[in-house]
Amino acid sequence: MILSSLVAVPLLGMIIVMFLPKDKFNAIRWTSLLISVVPMVVSMWITWDYFFNLSGTSALAYVEGPYDWIPSLNIQYYLGVDGISVPMLFLTGLLSTLSLLASFGINNRVKEYFAFFLLLEAGMMGVFVALDFFLFYVFWEIMLVPMYFLIGVWGGPRKEYAAIKFFLYTLFGSIFMLVAILIMYFTSEPHSLNMVILLDHGPTMSHTLQMVCFIFFFIAFAIKVPVWPFHTWLPDAHVEAPTAVSVILAGVLLKMGTYAMLRISWPMFPQALRDLSFWIAILGVIAIIYGALVSMAQKDLKKLVAYSSVSHMGYCMMALAAFSSVSAIAGCMFQMVSHGLITGALFLLVGVIYDRAHTREIAAFGGLGAKIPVYTGIMVMFSMAALGLPGMSGFVSEFMIFVGAFGALNKVLVGISVLGVVLGATYMLRMVQKIFLGEFNMAKWGGLTDINLREIISVAPLAVLTVAIGVYPKPLTELMTATLENLVSLMAR
Amino acid sequence: MTEYTFLIPLLPLFAFIMIVFFTRWKEMFSALLSIAMILAAWVMSVVILIETLGRIDEPFQWAYKFVNLPNFVLEIGTLVDPLTAVMLVVVTTVGACVEIYSVGYMHNDPRFSRFFAYLSLFLFSMLGLVVANNFFMIFIFWELVGLTSYLLIGFWFEKKSAADACKKAFITTRVGDLGFLVGLFMIGIYFGTFNYGGVFEIAGSGVIPAGILTAAAIFVFCGAVGKSAQWPLHVWLPDAMEGPTPVSALIHAATMVAAGVYLVARSMPLFVTSAEASLVVAIIGLITSFMAASIGLVQNDIKRILAYSTVSQLGYMIMALGLYGYDTAQGHHSPGFYAGTFHLMTHAFFKGLLFLGAGSVIHAVHTNDIQEMGGLARKMKLTAPTFMIASLSIAGIFPLSGFWSKDEIVAAASHYPIFLIGTLAIAFMTAFYMWRLCFLTFFGEPRDQHRFDHAHESPKNMTYPLVFLAVLSICAGWVGLPWIHKGFATFVYHGEAYEPHANYLLMAISLIVGLSGIYLAYLMYYKKSISADAMAEKFKGLYKLLYNKYYFDEIYQKVVIDPVMAFAGLMWKFDANVIDGAVNGTGWLTIKWSDIKEWFDTWIVDGAVNGCGWVVRQGANILRFMQTGSMQFYALFIAVLVVLFGLYKFEVKFLKIGWPTVTIIFILGVTLLALLTRITQIKFKANRRTDGEE
């Protein structure tokens, strides 16, 4: 029941919000916020309980089902979590609530906005708990709808273009996923969509079919991550989306790609994975270097952060290519959590300055450190976190990925990827210098106000977690260790 | 007390957290809190040093598993051996002096509390770096000192030069850290542990191939090259002088930049396994030291001279350590390790003093340019003598502390002619540029009367640290006198303790070299019997080369920064036009394709459908003429049909023609009828119209 509630509560909340009077903005805002607190608390409780009672084994926890749903097609309602989905649930619950808090500034079509947001949350939660392919596919697709409207209605100047691009691009990938799912369904005997059963079916398929399925799944998930060169929807979607939606995009949606790889295509087709891992590593390294370089050339603050996501998710891909190393895979999971926290916070902070200055052009600012010191302090902290400074979560993940990948992959390739560390520092520090350091333009920005309490509250949990994981990563590793060991052994088949 | 070593870094961290979150509005309280914490750390360090004296061969170790995955363990822990103990005392001593001094130096600064918060954060990181027991942990603090260095260089961030300098410092050292990181990965993969003890044991056991050891050592050394500003990554340190002067004293002279030397000393068991790596270290040290000293000869900014001096002295230490590794790898004895670490300690004191003294001078005359100073000894009764003590010490004059440590470096280099000549040349240049600085600043007639008139001695909380450090600059070296048997050399050592012996010939040579450097400076800048301008004119090319710092900044700008930025711009264009172009192109093609399909749909598919409709309608058009509504016509129609029917029966029976013919005749008949009616109708309508018009 508890996992179902993660999906059901936001769905129910969406319906409740739809019945609220249209012009009672604050009622709508607070209702949605309070509703989203429920899945957040539940996901935190799951994390807590899983960590203390269940993390010792790799067995699925809180399993619901499998109950027959459409028996004639053997479609089941089947939910469950393990060490890789629990951190994602935690992240989803937390970021959803914080984003709703950051959405209080929305004044246009408030009711629709919050209803869509809750639907989005339900979809995200669903993806991380589904264990049946049909269910998974439904959740995966259902999120596109609210996302499309959230970008397309409440977005920036090129919102329609960005929304359509995002929608079609993802849908394009989903078709490949659907074909792969159908291949698995029809080759299994009896026909099944149960991921746990198909986990054992995958390796018994013919090599060609494995390759086909793997590549099809890869296209679907790679677009979501996004892996270079499927990434160009991301900067557009990020730049046009309202702040809170950017946070969810970066914080949760991108992780669904890497999560799905770890949950589905990696352990199901280990032979195909072995054949293709070198090329996946190359895509990862290209993303790291390329994303950083393109970031460096950006003039728009939000676009800079968006491209830095490409670079950071490249680390995840490199780690996933080094599938034989527990530390690399753990580093990938760490990077997913840490990138969600750090980039989520960066987008929130970009929103804060955009709300005040109505511009995101880096060159328009300068010397703001003297005028808005608290905002500067927080922004510099997260920039440092993003460039992988020790003491914060990004460093731990990068370090684990590098060491794991260095042992498992081509050493020259990993050596090249380390360049990303310097490039990351370069684009982040250039940004910090241009916005916060130097001479302050009193005439232009004299009226700028510092970050307010509501904004601090929406960023503070992310800051605390970033530092906490960076200083004390042990709980997060222990939460995942058993599951990851099992995963690595599955991938070694 | 040694068990509580982990508390030492935490004390300044506590001060940092308190200041940032609670006490930053109370400026003086913040400063005092920060000072109290560093003094407490200092007391603990001294106690630990004394305890360590009693157990030189049993280093204290404590560790906690930070990340615990199968085959992958990261630890946080402390290792206290003599090297750690000495470094702790050096860092806390200079740190305490600098913090006390800063109360005076930074007063009236709008970000006073923040300054002390940053200093405390720095001390936390630096002390953490010193007590670390493994490579992973040292890297963590290694990066954190980089962060605080960044924050403090950019402390006056409104100045563009400071904003540029802090970014440059961070990124340049990160280039070195890149190598360090690769070194760490090699250690992690090939050694399976990051713990110093474990790594060194495996390195010494011979199970790791020599090539890997060499590569790992050189990569680790890359970190030191960045942090200790060695050639070719030395360019950031002179620019780092944009930070407040106490910061330059603490971070960019005494402690953080010495972290690279500390790292090499710490990793010495790794370097002694590879003569090649050690030789690389020694050569880089020599090149750096010589290059920086030569640049220092002609600079005019008091802090930049000291910065180049720092680079040069760090190169000295690195060279000594490299020579030790090279000798030991080949089975020879060498005083290099002891010399390098000893000089690390003495240098921290006299260089810290020089910077604080320079700060006092800048505080008095509000300029960094020594050409605008002169005669200040008359006004600054404490700053001038202490500064000169430090200058004597760095010039290696008997019996100040610099003499003893520098002498050991000369001894370490004495087996290799190139290194010996280089070392002596550097000693000569050092003595010259330091005393050029002294003569121009403190003696002669003031060259800027206005500045001179406003100059004054600094307040007591600034001068007392100077006096304290001056005492250390004189005496700190005496712990390493070659005549005592239980001294620095038998305390901080690697492998076997090196028993120093007094080599009077070398002592005399290095003393003469130092004195002649001072004498030349005296002739040129005090007596002016040799004209400095004439010298500059005579060696114009060389002078320009040195004055422009061998053009390293310009070369890096052209060779590295500009191409990378251009490449980034190119990649961005590539992304927007090619990759996104492909995506948008696919979209465009899809739309075009659907246009074609739309045409096909409209004209062919729908055309067929409409065509059917058209045929039906045209047929109906014809047929509808039969619906005339005229009784006569219907009667005629029926009559014709009857006839036709009869004909049909008749024909089928007698003429033996088939269905089709009959049907055709039938249709023809009907059509004929229809046309007939049509004609009559048109007539009828025409009649009606004319009727209506009438």
Write the layout of secondary structure elements.
The complex is a heterodimer of chains A (493) and B (694).
Chain A: H1 2-19, H2 25-54, E1 61-70, E2 75-81, H3 85-102, H4 110-129, H5 133-142, H6 144-154, H7 159-187, H8 195-201, H9 207-224, H10 233-240, H11 243-268, H12 270-296, H13 301-321, H14 326-357, H15 368-371, H16 373-386, H17 393-408, H18 411-417, H19 419-436, H20 442-445, H21 453-471, H22 474-491
Antiparallel strand pairs in A: 1-2
Chain B: H1 7-23, H2 27-53, E1 60-69, E2 72-80, H3 82-105, H4 112-131, H5 135-153, H6 160-191, H7 196-205, H8 210-227, H9 236-239, H10 245-254, H11 259-266, H12 268-271, H13 275-296, H14 302-329, H15 336-365, H16 383-394, H17 401-413, H18 417-442, H19 449-454, H20 460-475, H21 504-527, H22 532-538, H23 540-547, H24 552-624, H25 631-655, H26 659-693
Antiparallel strand pairs in B: 1-2
From the structure above, extract its key features.
A: 493 residues, mainly alpha, two-stranded antiparallel ribbon, 76% helix, B: mainly alpha, 2 strands, elongated
Number of helices of chain B: 26
Helix content of chain A: over 70%
Distance between the termini of chain A: 34 Å
Strand arrangement within the widest β-sheet of chain B reads: 1-2
**How many helices of chain A?**
22
Query: What is the residue-averaged pLDDT of chain B?
Result: 86
| Topology of chain A as a string of helices (H) and strands (E) | HHEEHHHHHHHHHHHHHHHHHHHH
Helix- and strand-based class of chain B? mainly alpha
Range of strand content of chain B: under 5%
Oligomer classification = heterodimer
The helix/strand order of chain B is HHEEHHHHHHHHHHHHHHHHHHHHHHHH
Portion in helices of chain B: over 70%
Across the major sheet of chain A, the strand order is: 1-2
The largest pleated sheet of chain B is described as: 2 strands, antiparallel
3D shape of chain B: elongated
Number of domains of chain A: 2
Strands of chain A, count: 2
Biggest interface found: A-B, 57 and 52 residues
Radius of gyration of chain B, Cα only, in angstroms?
45 Å
Largest sheet of chain A: 2 strands, antiparallel
